[in-house]
Design a protein that fits this description.
globular; transport; membrane; Putative translocase of outer mitochondrial membrane complex subunit tom37/metaxin 1
């Protein structure tokens, strides 16, 4: 079995809530699943990550993946606690998710930052389209819950109620966990997968405007909770772009050789052709996307009729 997720950042295994949630569930149940971070959402049945690949079968969405893993004996909950656990999970999602989603995909100060994170991890040219799906989902939720569009001016974004619910939810989680290792005491459950999915990203995401992070840092037991799970289960899966780039740069320096003046001209020429071709394809794709999305508009009326003039008497004068 293989699970396809977005590559991580900030020392976390992934940047995405649903991906982090399912990865935590897999770790807690010790399911033999290989993590794949070089993933393309367009290969997923629902066009989103995560998805699970079992032989030639693909299973998308957190709920369906958990259902399949449970059917294979990888359960995170005791049967007698099923109703209680589901109730707590629904309560957390109902109160925390709206403002969590808004901070990532709705806040004008954060939206470009989040879009860049997802676009960087999505193959070209799908990186133009994929982030837009998350923005659209966020916009639909804001219109339903708060009666505003994320495209409205920032002063019209009435998020006070959502933010209050999110902070109250974090306080409630902190009170429930207390000094315990897990939400229900000394044993983990699916609730912990959901909580870690939210809190780990809130705590570590470097959003320009992260109000929930400021509040979460005041709950010291939750900070320890996140760090404990990260260290125990994701010490080897944590990822940081800056560290990866420095490591890659160091490797290149160690393996590079000085230019001797005998470099193969054919290889250089082929490399230049590939770069030019890639640039040409990128230009065409971006132009097509701009026209399709309405960013670029071309009208025949905008082209003056006398733009090109031909001097019919030119040959006679000569």
């Amino acid at each position: 079995m293989e699970i396809y997720v977005y590559k991580g950042e900030w020392g976390l295994p992934t940047i995405d809530f649903d991906c982090c949630r399912i990865l935590t569930y897999i770790k807690l149940t010790k399911a033999p699943v290989k993590i794949q971070t070089k993933s393309n959402p367009f290969t997923s049945p629902n066009g989103l990550l995560p998805y699970l690949k079992v032989d030639n079968r693909k299973i998308a969405s957190y709920a369906k993946i958990v259902e399949y893993l449970s059917s294979q004996g990888f359960r995170c909950n005791k049967h007698e606690e099923f109703i209680l656990i589901n109730g707590h999970i629904e309560n957390i999602i109902e109160n925390l998710h709206p403002f969590f989603l808004y901070e990532q995909w709705g806040d004008p100060k954060n939206i470009d930052f989040t879009r860049g994170l997802y676009a960087y991890r999505t193959p070209f040219p799908f990186n133009f389209y994929c982030p837009r799906k998350y923005i659209s989902k966020t916009n639909e939720l804001m219109e339903t819950l708060a009666n505003f569009s994320i495209e409205d001016p920032a002063e019209q974004h009435d998020t006070a109620s959502m933010m209050l619910n999110a902070k109250k939810c974090i306080n409630w989680i902190a009170e429930k966990i207390g000094d315990n290792d897990w939400f229900l005491g000394q044993e983990s459950s699916e609730i912990d997968a959901t909580i870690f999915g939210y809190l780990s990203i809130i705590l570590h995401a470097t959003l320009p405007n992260n109000l929930l992070q400021i509040h979460l840092r005041q709950c010291t037991n939750l900070v320890k909770y996140v760090e404990r799970i990260t260290k125990k289960y994701f010490a080897e899966d944590g990822f940081c772009t800056a560290n990866a780039k420095n490591s890659h740069r160091k490797t290149e320096e160690e393996t590079s050789t000085f230019y001797t003046g005998k470099e193969d001209d054919e290889n250089v020429s082929a490399k230049r052709k590939r770069i030019l071709l890639s640039g040409f394809v990128a230009l065409i794709t971006m132009t097509a996307y701009a026209i399709y999305s309405g960013i670029l508009h071309i009208s025949r009326e905008e082209i003056p009729s006398n733009m090109f003039q031909y001097d019919e008497d030119l040959s006679d004068d000569e």
